[in-house]
Automatic annotation (TrEMBL):
Molecular function GO labels: electron transfer activity; oxidoreductase activity, acting on diphenols and related substances as donors, oxygen as acceptor
InterPro entries assigned to the protein according to its UniProt record, in alphabetical order: Cyt-d_oxidase_su2
UniProt membrane topology term: Multi-pass membrane protein
Transmembrane region(s): 12-41, 86-104, 116-141, 161-183, 195-215, 227-248, 260-279, 299-319
Subcellular location: Cell membrane
Organism (species): Candidatus Methylospira mobilis
Protein name: Cytochrome d ubiquinol oxidase subunit II
Family: Belongs to the cytochrome ubiquinol oxidase subunit 2 family.
Amino acid sequence: METEIHNLLANIWFFIISLILILYVILDGFDLGVGILTLFARNEEQRTLMMSSLGGVWDANETWLVLLGGALFGAFPIVYATVLHALYVPVMAMLFGLIFRGIALEFRSLGRNKALWNVAFGIGSMTAAASQGFIIGGLLGKMPIVNDVFAGGVWDWLTSYSVTSACAVVVIYLLFGTTYLIIKTEKEIQAVNIRYAQIASMALIVLLLIIIWWVPRLHPYVLDRWAGSPVAFSCVAALLLMAFVMIFSSLRNRREFSPFFWSVVIFILAFSLISLSYYPCIIPAVISVQQAASPSKTLIFMLTGIGMMIPVMLIYNGYQYFVFRGKVTLKNVETVSY
């Protein structure tokens, strides 16, 4: 009975952490995507509009990353320790990237050398996004672990699979960023981002196909997962294909809100397809969700805290987006300090 309760709690926490990860990727993803896009802005006016579109919301979005780290540390300490040990380099690169982009966004309007802060913001965003992709690719690749301890080297995370994962994360963030800017901007800059969103969507299709082809070759047990539930996985794949059709349709018809909605749907379906393929392993072919979970008392105690934090954070995020709704234009950009 105790084992069944522990397994249930472990699965609940696996779902909660997956939910937090999804929320972080969506909310901070468009932040990072916009940051990367500033590197390709045609002029200073476009760059200012892009950065001003993030005013008032970007810092709160990163709070989900803090919550993700805390939840992972408490619920799955083995995974947390393994990630820090095996993926120390990309984790530190991600943190430095987030720090630099935050400093650049705040000091851009105060410093004399605005071009320097522009580059720092773009490079910081790119570094953070790519590092997150390397973390995911390193974690889901073939990680050498002996007796629940990482037994590899400092650069074992750097593989062709992790490079592909990094490219996929950067592209999905670019898709979030472009579709967010379609909502927040108008005229020429909106038209430019519609074209960028179409390119990002096509690139994402290619990268997802490569990853889906690659996964069972890294971890053959995934084929058994697919064969065991062919209808479920086929349905998710069909829905993913439909979501891509819908985003191309909405972009072609120049819709404003639909492209961002469908980009979110695409990410959730792709995340579900890949995570369900690996389940019940939280570190593929090495450690299961149940093995990595903390004792039942710890998981129950944490549920009370997370049950209060997530609703409060969602309400706060929702209030922010309500307050800062509407288009960003050159007329109102002077009221924003970016």
